[in-house]
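Q: My collaborator sent me two sequences in one message, no labels, and asked for predicted structures for both. Can we handle them in order? The first one she listed is below.
A: Yes, handling them in the order given. First sequence, followed by its structure tokens:
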Amino acid sequence: MLTIHAAPLVLPVGAAPVPEGAVLVDGGRIAAIGSYEDVVAESPRARVRQWPGVLTPGLRQWHGRWLLTRVYHPDPREADELGTEPITDFASDDEGRWAGSVRRGLQRMLAHGTTHVGGGFPDGVRQSLARAGLREVANAWRLAPPLTGAPDLDPFVEGGDLAGTVHGPLVVGGSADLAAFDVPDEAALVERGGATCVATVLGGRLVYRRR
């Protein structure tokens, strides 16, 4: 199925920004990048998804292993007891509880525009990663906690700017791994970070959408 993802500003990274831009997705691949007008003219019957703000490549979370195996992500039902923020010193031998934490951690990564996650992972975590559709990036040298000393689901904390945070540029023929953020431009995105994500697309599939 052909799908057009459109936004007031498309930031391909490695190429010029496209005001009132669009990305045409054919299955799991990018078929075209250009102005909304041109992309729609090329594929007038494609489904259109309109996003606010900016559309970028999906982001890369270098500290995925640490955030998924060393940090506990509370269940909303545990909020009264544990709060809602990630916990770095949570002590439990309950494997089921930790499995739930991994699933919630992955969903929270998707909610920050993350499509690529630094590994390597134990088999159980890797299986959860595969089910969520996230892509593992080998980076054994970054298994330690972030330099900030605190867990952070926002990839911009480690990546700094957009080019240092995305998994790679948007290119025709490449995998359709995209993220949309409700900000007006690149500077605002870097300043406000991944929490402004409104949608994440992995291999052409919409895997997260802010309600």
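Q: And the one she listed second?
A: Here it is, processed independently of the first:
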Amino acid sequence: MRADARRNLDKIVAAAAAVISERGLGAPMELIARRAGVGVGTLYRRFPDRNALIAAVGDHYIGALIDALRAWEQDSPDAWSGLRGFLLWAADPDRSTLAGAMAQLPEEVYREGADFAKARDHWLEMLDALVRRAQAEGSMRADVGTEDVVSLLNLFACHIADLPPPMAAQPIRFLTLMLDGLQTAAVTPAPTASDDGVRGE
């Protein structure tokens, strides 16, 4: 692909991510083209339909997660600081609006591509390695795992609208409180699935 064509493609995907964040998945294709500074014909030559464009935005989003996680890991003094910083970065309202929009899609729309699946698996492997490092360093409690971290991220980055109103109004505050509970200083053992419900005599 020529350099100018690559630049146009990147501009379209970046514009689509920004417009979808603002207007949702039904954002007009014309608005995306205008934001990218290209004609509608150019947009449709690159992406024959909305689903193809959204798939590219999904690739763009997971790529941003990988880059950010790598940066937080490399630039932080320890694994827990890197993990905590990354999660708060990902849940920032300026970014979580895009994650929330993408979460409304059926998986097949943007997960059929092998590139997306491979990138997502790579991100999960990186996240798991960071969780294990934080536990090995003694800063993160050992009775939680990567699935718990992903669940928190899904809730506070992808499904803010499902939170109770006081939490939805201050998602970063409540995520911070929950992250505090993942540290070794939180001494109450985490209940397991078998502990759920009311126990009989």
